[in-house]
Amino acid sequence: GESVGLHLPTLSVQEGDNSIINCAYSNSASDYFIWYKQESGKGPQFIIDIRSNMDKRQGQRVTVLLNKTVKHLSLQIAATQPGDSAVYFCAEGQGYNKLIFGAGTRLAVHP
Amino acid sequence: GAVVSQHPSWVICKSGTSVKIECRSLDFQATTMFWYRQFPKQSLMLMATSNEGSKATYEQGVEKDKFLINHASLTLSTLTVTSAHPEDSSFYICSARQGISNQPQHFGDGTRLSIL
């Protein structure tokens, strides 16, 4: 389930289940969206991005969905593995210029 | 591909000293580099955008005289924290974007700065 921690909300899932991480963005003028994964003590790692002229994009085990009507972005991870445990950030931008990062969600994968 | 290297990864120094952090794009040319600051369990906050050969653009509330940014080449940007104080202790992360379009920002592994 999902819970709000001291600073980061946490999503706990069982290994092998699918994970869905949600993000609400604020600027209706944003036309570029991106998901990053950050492991402890490291920099963010690019996962997948999507432009506003699309509503879905798939990668390896990951899918990003964009709903511009409600300004909502989600990241779906199929068959979640222990190595997927990390903090996930969505970010929004205009063009490929500066990004504004969301608050982040911690994904905890349990065996 | 798209590897960004940051150095040092960790630095501890006394209050009042200046600290320089390097950000290098190893296998691509980065016309634009970005500097972020991240506090524990919080998100990344953009400090400044650096374009090669020109002055950096700082975000509101970021002191440009405190955080000096130089982007002298297409593969190197530096951030110097001048006269650092304990409140400057944080995780500083850079990212780089390739000059051609349709490329996302790629991040370094950050520098943990601790000011005593």
Give an account of the 3D structure.
The complex is a heterodimer of chains A (111) and B (116). With 111 residues, chain A is an all-beta fold. In chain A, 0% of the residues lie in helices and 55% in strands. In chain A, strand 6 and strand 7 form a beta hairpin. Chain B has no helices and eleven strands. The termini of chain B are far apart. The relative contact order of chain B is 0.33. Chain B is 0% helix and 54% strand. Classes of the chains: A mainly beta (111), B mainly beta (116). At the A-B interface, strand 5 and strand 10 of A face strand 5, strand 9 and strand 10 of B.
Question: What profile does the largest beta sheet of chain A have?
Answer: 7 strands, mixed
Task: List unreliable stretches of 5+ residues of chain A.
Answer: 1-6
Order of helices and strands of chain B: EEEEEEEEEEE
Number of separate helices of chain A: 0
Secondary-structure blueprint:
The complex is a heterodimer of chains A (111) and B (116).
Chain A: E1 2-4, E2 9-14, E3 19-24, E4 32-38, E5 45-51, E6 56-58, E7 62-67, E8 72-77, E9 86-93, E10 99-101, E11 105-110
Chain B: E1 4-7, E2 10-13, E3 19-25, E4 30-38, E5 44-51, E6 57-58, E7 67-73, E8 76-81, E9 90-98, E10 106-107, E11 111-115
Parallel strand pairs in B: 2-11
Antiparallel strand pairs in B: 1-3, 3-8, 4-5, 4-9, 5-6, 7-8, 9-10, 9-11
Brief sketch in words of this structure:
The complex is a heterodimer of chains A (111) and B (116). With 111 residues, chain A is mainly β.
